[in-house]
Amino acid sequence: MKCNQCTVADTKVIESRDVHDGQSVRRRRECLDCTHRFTTYERVEQPQITVIKSDGNRELFDRHKLLAGLRRACEKTPVTSLQLERLVSDIEKQILSCGEQEIPSGQIGDMVIEKLSELNEVAYVRFASVYRKFTDISGFERELLQIRGQQNSKQQADNVSTP
């Protein structure tokens, strides 16, 4: 592994540990030349999934692109990077478990919306506004009404299950 500071290829592993429920390995490395420390991740290479965009174009699934969109939706919220990594990993597992080589982007968007609604309401509405292409305030209002309806249903279910 090359040092990202001086590009010398001679580095040593200082520490290794499993992350993302054993799906990848995090390694702390040190350059033997300049002593710069950096982190690398190893993950099992998964089959390549093609995403069918709404305009019919196809592109390879890119977890980093999904993560970047989620980071934008979660700016200035208490959602942590670790939570976002887990969310993306969960979605990636869900996509791979389908067993299909191609998946519509809308299906991925629905998965994201579902998980974000559980994680943070503000991030959910931000993501939904882009994903569902809100053009006016009524789109936000419909989404907020849906959130309130889900909250009320959950509260009623909790009240029924509590003796």
Structure report:
This protein has 163 residues and is α+β, with helices and mostly antiparallel strands. It has two domains: 11-43; 50-138, no CATH class. It has five helices and six strands. It has helices spanning 63-73, 81-97, 105-119, 121-131, 137-161, and strands at 11-19, 24-31, 37-43, 50-52, 58-60, 102-104. Strands 1-2-3 form a three-stranded antiparallel β-sheet, with no helix packed on it. A hairpin with a 5-residue loop joins strand 2 (24-31) and strand 3. It is elongated. The protein starts with 10 loop residues before the first strand and ends with a helix.
Describe the secondary-structure layout.
Blueprint: E1 11-19, E2 24-31, E3 37-43, E4 50-52, E5 58-60, H1 63-73, H2 81-97, E6 102-104, H3 105-119, H4 121-131, H5 137-161
Parallel strand pairs: 4-6
Antiparallel strand pairs: 1-2, 2-3, 4-5
